[in-house]
Amino acid sequence: WVQIYLGLGGNIANELGDPKSHILAAANALAQHENFRQVRLSSLYSSKPFGVTDQPDFVNAVLAAQTNLAPLALLDFCQSLEQNAGRVRLRHWGERSLDVDILLYGNQTIDSERLVVPHAFMWQRNFVLVPLFELDEHLIVDDLALKDVSLAKDMTGLIKLPNT
Ligand SMILES: CC1(C)Nc2nc(N)[nH]c(=O)c2N=C1O
């Protein structure tokens, strides 16, 4: 079994449905699946759009789990979770109902057409690092200790949503 971390995110936009419910539904579906155990979900955070900024705010979270799925099988599962949320993507890097990205897969480095792990942009994104730090403050990735990464404590553009 391998320790994995997934990044979940969706835009707050009427025609896309409620990203909080999409994230919670995806986490529940994954937790009930036999190929996952020790599933933990971070708090949900509303976050200002990063990169392509002319779009609605996002809701983001990170999910930690152990899986016995191989990397590409895990990718297929993540894509099925996106489909279940009615994977609407209006434009590349634009509004979407739900993204489920593989952030980390054990200590493995994967560099293939379909999959790059660790996720290429995670170290520049506080909407990934803040919930990741919430889940595992002692995490070390490629000799980098998350607790030493200032962005993991930078709440700029983030609002931690109440766990209701
Ligand atoms: C468009 C881009 C880069 N920006 C984002 N910005 C935020 N805040 N959250 C995301 O999940 C997110 N995803 C993206 O793909």
Describe the structure.
The protein is an alpha+beta fold. 23% of the residues lie in helices and 29% in strands. The chain has 3 helices and 10 strands; from the N terminus they run βαβββαβββαβββ. The strands form 3 sheets. Strands 1, 2, 3, 4, 5 and 10 form a 6-stranded antiparallel β-sheet that branches. Strand 8 (140-141) and strand 9 form a beta hairpin. The chain is globular. The relative contact order is 0.22. The structure holds 7,8-dihydro-7,7-dimethyl-6-hydroxypterin. The site of 7,8-dihydro-7,7-dimethyl-6-hydroxypterin has 12 residues, from strand 4.
Hetero groups in this structure are: 7,8-dihydro-7,7-dimethyl-6-hydroxypterin
Q: Main β-sheet: number of strands, strand sense, barrel status?
A: 6 strands, antiparallel
The total of beta strands comes to: 10
SS class:
alpha+beta
Give the radius of gyration: 15 Å
Summarize the structure.
This protein has helices at about 20-30, 70-85, 125-135; strands at about 1-10, 35-40, 45, 60-65, 100-105, 110, 115, 140, 145, 160. It has about 160 residues and is α+β, with helices and mostly antiparallel strands. The termini are far apart.
